[in-house]
Amino acid sequence: MRVLIWISIFLITFCGMEFMAWFTHKYVMHGFLWSLHKDHHYKKHSSWWERNDFFFVFYAVISMSCIMLHNPTTFPIGEPIGFGILAYGIAYFLVHDIFIHQRFKLFRNTNHWYAKGLRRAHKIHHKHLGKHKGECFGMLFVPFKYFRRQ
């Protein structure tokens, strides 16, 4: 029974991170911390590192803290929460940074309708270079209008 609870908390956390990614992106990155996120839209830098990557560091610290603070009596859900955040971070990095933005030159010739839809939706978001008017959505729950078959 304990394993089912652990897996449930892990999955709830993973799915909840989709909301957190959307919320953080819309109200924090395109809000009061635009100064950190701006270089992700403008690309006027030669460095591989972007100030935007500090958001990754922030969630990594939260994930590691939950895992390290896990205690069977005082914080029994620390591990599944921490690993759920970690799993979402890995998935987000693979989809957003590697697949969509090609920070590493992998998956360049992917020709699947879902993959094309993700790229199309993200391209529409990056069409607006400013702080406002950027359509925001998560990685998993992208509106279906972007997934038309061609």
Written account of the structure:
There is one protein chain. The chain is mainly alpha-helical and 150 residues long. It has one domain (2-111). It is 63% helix and 0% strand.
User: What percent of residues are in strands?
Assistant: under 5%
Question: Main β-sheet: number of strands, strand sense, barrel status?
Answer: none
The rounded distance between the terminal residues' Cα atoms is: 46 Å
Can you give the mean pLDDT?
79
Structural class: mainly alpha
The total count of helices amounts to 5
Shape, principal axes of CA atoms: globular
Low-confidence stretches: none
User: Which bin fits the share of residues in helices?
Assistant: 55-70%
Q: How many strands in all?
A: 0
Can you describe this structure in just a few lines?
63% of the residues lie in helices and 0% in strands. It is globular, with a radius of gyration of 17 Å.
